[in-house]
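re: that chain from earlier
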Amino acid sequence: MRLLIRALRILLSIGALGVSALAVLAVLGFAVPYFDLLNHLQALLFIGTLLSLLFVPALLGRGVWRRFVLAATATGFFASAITVVPEFTASLQPRPPVPASGQTVVKVMTHNLFGMNYDMLRVLDVIKREQPDIIALQEFFGEQRSELGPLLKETYPYSVFCRGGKRANLGLFSKLPFTQEQGAACPDDAYGAQRTGHILGLFELPDGSHFSLMTTHLDWPAPKMARQREEFAELQAAVAEVEGPLVVVGDFNSTSWSYALRGFGRSTGLTRQDHGLLTYPALFYYLGGWRETLPFLPLDHVFTRGVAVHDLHTAGMTGSDHLPVVFTFTVDEGSPD
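^ sequence. v structure.
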């Protein structure tokens, strides 16, 4: 029994020190970009350091080693908390009410459909429940488009599609008429080499206001971190060309805890509206099939400029490994044209 207890204490010490070290390195991601990869795991690091902080005092014997492990664990917990807690706190802040001045309220759904999701009737069911005015889709491949497109045509008569490399398959459906801008960023070659793209639409509303909406899909930061940094830079340049109120949505494959995503918000002047919104993975492959699981990564984001967001939430499962994000907004009356 003593041998077993000793082994458990050793394993606890190794685990506590390991997760705490990762949490500290994640904080240093601003200086070493590769450490920023650890910020994508902040939900796990926070829980891991918290559990370590609870169990180390209870299970480790008294002495110098216990004090050392406890100090290291407390440092790791603090390092993770300064990243995770502000994000959680921001999610509790109330949103502005819909103005009583009669402005048009716009509802948007942004959703990564998942390339292996072929149950478009399930997708349609969620769309019918949410009734968005605009639907922005990522990982929207040809077979999905050929089935879902006709189902949406009557209600959403305005649409644009990108057909390109893995991340450049996008769709935009709308009840509202719009003009496509920056069309060169939206490829139309399913066998092309362009990995990413974006759709930019300019909308004019019945109340006389207008806004632009952009949807995109970026690569994972690993294994080629430089590739995602280049994609962020290209997206920043595309945003800089847009005047007036703007909404940018999509699967950024970067968590809200990462320096990369926070840097994009600062460099563009956009405000990220989602906080603590865990959207991925809603499915995980194990025991020979895709099975529903609890998401722990916030990868799907909503950035805005010149609009007020009144509600933002995740919608129901569609058969994708991402949850849809749905939000409503009005154009700020004081926004420049």
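The longest helix spans residues 64-91.
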